[in-house]
Protein 1
Amino acid sequence: MLTSLIALAFQAAAAPPAPKAADPLPADWKPIPAAELLVMKLADERQVVIRLAPRYAPVHVANIRKLASARWWDGETIYRVHDNYVVQWGDATEKKALPAGVIAQPPAEYDWPRYDAVTRLTRIDPYSTSTGHSADGWPLATNGMVAWLPHCYGMVGVARDLKPSTGSGGDLYAVIGHAPRHLDRNIAIVGRVLEGIEHLSSLPRGTEGGLGLYKEASQRVPIISVRLASELPEASQPRFEYRAANNARFAAWVKARENREPPFFELPAGGSDICNAMPPVRRAS
Amino acid sequence: MLTSLIALAFQAAAAPPAPKAADPLPADWKPIPAAELLVMKLADERQVVIRLAPRYAPVHVANIRKLASARWWDGETIYRVHDNYVVQWGDATEKKALPAGVIAQPPAEYDWPRYDAVTRLTRIDPYSTSTGHSADGWPLATNGMVAWLPHCYGMVGVARDLKPSTGSGGDLYAVIGHAPRHLDRNIAIVGRVLEGIEHLSSLPRGTEGGLGLYKEASQRVPIISVRLASELPEASQPRFEYRAANNARFAAWVKARENREPPFFELPAGGSDICNAMPPVRRAS
């Protein structure tokens, strides 16, 4: 049936059959600490799991952990869904005080002085001089001087006002379209959606001001709760693993991403942008 | 109010206030022929308008025009919604014969021997040696030998089986995620969604086989009709314009896309990938 063959063809496109050299060993899968997982619950059992990036944006992530511990987002909303751009949530009315200990004006954690990628993509992109993966599963870009987390699909950033604001972390967004890499180094990236991005990306688009804001408060999507996994009952903590990148098997995986294989692909690209080679993560078994 | 300021900030991000040099003259807006516009109607007044690219994929586009004239898609469905990838429609059951004159196996119109972009983006991307815009509003990439339409958000391609299939055009997809540029030159691109992409990108995701296929036939989204605008009653023909690219004002617009401006942006990127500099189009007034 053509449909199934189209499906197979597109399976090849989405996740090419990897050569054996690219297969991970069981030990390549490493647990992600529960304190790095942020769990957002929406109605109807919809759940979004975000991995936080404390190494890259420590003050913003400390804020986010405090906001979650204080249950600050519970009862707040997703108030912006901008097609081919971002879904944004937090306090749409800006009437809610920040919990004690949350720093209203963190430093501009937009980049990081040390570039320690353990892979190197073959070709450069228009926004950096090199891209690759950290040993523990983050996409990275560099200009040779500083490093940063790129604005790929599913990455989570801190909404901010005009300068000198950097955003408290109370309002967050996730990328749901083509990577808006022009935001790189202009805004703090604090994490990545590991699971449930479809609960954000398939929401009705907002229409207000051409910005994707919901026009009516009634259109906003209620947030039931946002918690650190480490603060959930142990039985209900989601467990995730990243694939360690500092080994030859991962390097082979990168090459396979850069050169998609027959029978679907006739012409391998010979390269990839970092957003089409996002670090593999999975649910722990 | 913070919300409005966030909004303004993101407005800057989405569409920076262009310098005067980048402003188009009224005469820069050129009509798109009605025979290049494909209008797909879904329930509840949802409408998707696609500009066809006959110059780049003439045989596939001729097929698509014949399929529309024969009302081949009427009553068919959107049967695949794959998050961060594609929405696909056509005949999910593969039981429908092609109309007379439709070529079941067109040539592989994956690239084009002449690269005639009239702009040049400052930096290269991992998938080409140069990118730019055609005079009449198409994004283009080249390797110095051939040219092709890149798989950017909203671009429309022809689903195909494994080689040597090129797809008839009966099954089409639109990109709804980060640009899958690895598909470039492996598949025929035949157009671009000009309006209504949100009616595709916000559909519930399919779950079947990890491919985004809807598991149950009842989940498929019915297509009411697909018509060439030129075959609609004149009063109901949508009219669109592209912005002519062969002028200094457009070159200034490209520079503005590559270097987003204060007060929101502190660090301009100095470059852009072609998918973040998609040719402007608009409804004709």
Note: The domain at 22-283 of chain B is CATH 2.40.100.10 (Cyclophilin).
Protein 2
Amino acid sequence: MDDRPVVLADDTTRAWSPRTARARFREGLAIPTAGVAAGYAQANLVSVPADWAYDMLLFCQRNPRACPLLDVTDAGSTSTVLASDADLRTDLPRYRVWEGGELVDEPTDVRAYWRDDLVSFLIGCSFTFEWALAAAGVPLRHVEQGRNVPMYRTTWQCRSAGRLSGPMVVSMRPVPPEHLDDAIRESGLMPAVHGAPVHCGDPSALGVDDLDRPDFGDRVELAPDDIPVFWACGVTPQAAVMASRPPFALTHAPGRMFVGDARDEQFRVL
Amino acid sequence: MDDRPVVLADDTTRAWSPRTARARFREGLAIPTAGVAAGYAQANLVSVPADWAYDMLLFCQRNPRACPLLDVTDAGSTSTVLASDADLRTDLPRYRVWEGGELVDEPTDVRAYWRDDLVSFLIGCSFTFEWALAAAGVPLRHVEQGRNVPMYRTTWQCRSAGRLSGPMVVSMRPVPPEHLDDAIRESGLMPAVHGAPVHCGDPSALGVDDLDRPDFGDRVELAPDDIPVFWACGVTPQAAVMASRPPFALTHAPGRMFVGDARDEQFRVL
């Protein structure tokens, strides 16, 4: 597996076009995508057999803060409206393969696992609103510290859909008090990429016992006055896969997202 | 049928609670809902057999400006998360019944048509953002004139989903030039109820030949400098039903919406 702390994008990978990023990942590069192809929107991926697609689509509709849908493919399709030339089987840096809710592989390419009945769901990513937070002067501690954003499985249950249920997963960013209003407003203007925070302040309100032990991503240091701010996270469908055990699913590996062709600012409602 | 110009809500019906409005409609009152239970969000309805539910859900996902989903029920359910005590078979003022894409009835109650395999889709309504337009000082010509908002079938095709395809339907509001920015901003802040306009200015860009002959609702007079402003409309699924001919569907009658318990302002992202 690949859970060691990571070095985020450097000047070279930040300047990549989305097409270049996808080409590098297709060649096997397996780096985290935070900061890669800066300015272009990334997406979470979950692919399930057609027999489970209605439940997944309904699960996303019923949990729009965690699972804002940017695209849903036709069964078997390996392309997406989010990019002109992408192949969803090869163009992410790393995938997770799930059988009966168990993680069985983390390859950099899923051609060997692909099935013609797979429906792929591309879900908005909070990296997209980080552009707006940074533009408003909100410091991004995980970026300053060269780490992936920390994510936590909460005790908040999603609204279930058919056979799919599971907890909400959240990402956490430490925000100085004087920037809290900016962070809420700027992310709130981007509902297609999770929108406003679901909670600010007390991790225990979400059933998170220890901020230093995220379930996905890396731990991040809070400055003395920082408030932990929690946003619903596109890893939530992975938690539903783990809880609900469909016979088969593919997802991105947390922090290793699909890089699309749309600009971050296209997801701002104003 | 029921296409004559209508008198909109009076002081009594404006002051109704959503629960009272639903109770009156359940008793058979068949008035348009514009202005009824002022301040509470209304919704479009389309119900299709479970066999068609995936296509409808995907159609809505792929056309989010026209079909922003507020709730999708489990098959056969007559209740919705949008109201605590509602019965979707009786609580709208008037329905349309569709067989093979043909309108076969417009009853005030669909208990006689109900099927246990029906999945109901409740879709955001532009009446909800009219609250914000009015608060920003944008005049609402159709309300001033006591008419239902005019709606037009455009030549813009929706993104298809399985067996469902069809044109985008739009609602039109005349807006004075000095209020155009307000109208765009205020509706843009409410993406769950259609969001910003899809077009301002030239009706022919949408394939609309004659503003005085709407396909649904009533014609509305423009003041001399008014700009016609077009928003994607929740009647779009009805146009898809007419174009794609599922064996059976129920919808609301245009302008006779479901009145839910949520306040209009809950759909504003800020």
Note: Chain A touches chain B at residues 53-54, 57-58, 60-62, 69, 72, 185, 188-189, 191-192, 195-196, 269-270 (CB under 8 Å).
